[in-house]
Amino acid sequence: MRTWPQRFSWEWTIVVLIGTAALLGFAKVGADVFTHKATSLDGAVQGWSLTHQNSALHAVFLWITRIGGIMGMRVLALMSALYLWFRGHRRVAAGVLVVPVVADFLFNGAKRIYARPRPLGLGAHVDSSYAFPSGHATVSAAVCCTLAYVLWREGLMSRWAALVLAVLVPLLVGVSRLYLNVHWATDVLGGWSAGLVVAALSAMLYNHHRRRRASAR
Question: Which of 60, 135, 161, 163 is most deeply packed, by most CB within 10 A?
């Protein structure tokens, strides 16, 4: 009982630091995009991607961007919420369902503000929405990082599995958007940052709920 408050404070501090860093990162990338200072990085990454095109990799990343897209993350959040609901964590399940909704609202609002055109894309296929930030990167980071944290804290997922879910899945989804040339590099960086902000806020709310639940017990 003596070590529990210290452990809770330490985990709360980590969440706050990650959320603050993600918010500052989004602000920095957004400022560079707004002032057109990100063109050198975007051009370099786009040039490397276009010169390393491969039919097999193109097919792999196309499947990744479809499965790990916005709809795929909504389905993942829904399935995870149902799992938590039947495990008796009903408030946590409801919170998980809200994550993709908040992420959608965030990146759609930012897209309207920046109104950044997209790259041409490969195979003449590109979404009609604006570029910054990447919706795929935002929602995948928000959903996967939130689920990884919640499931790990609830003892339903090991630490290493949580790290794979939180890091590898958003990374692959973001890279797929770059390889398919439907987003600039700073779009993906901004999306990851925005998604981490949502995940950090979700983790803070979860920690608050967990502390109240422990106090009640």
Answer: 135
Burial of 78 (0-12, 13-18, 19+ CB in 10 A): middle
pLDDT score, position 28: 87
Question: So where are the chain's domains?
Answer: 43-216
pLDDT in tens, 21-37: 888 888 888 888 888 88
Long-range contacts formed by 204-212: CB under 8 A, 24+ apart: 204/12, 204/15, 204/16, 204/19, 205/95, 206/92, 206/95, 206/149, 206/150, 206/153, 207/8, 207/11, 207/12, 207/15, 209/91, 209/92, 209/95, 210/153, 211/8
What is the distance between the alpha carbons of residues 103 and 72, in angstroms, rounded to a whole number?
14
Measured between alpha carbons, how far is 95 from 89 in angstroms, rounded to an integer? 10
Rounded Cα gap, residues 204 and 202, in angstroms: 5
Whether the predicted model's global pTM rises above the 0.70 cut: yes
What angle, rounded to 10 degrees, do the helices at 90-114 and 185-216 form? 150
Give the least confident one: 6-20, 32-46, 140-154.
6-20
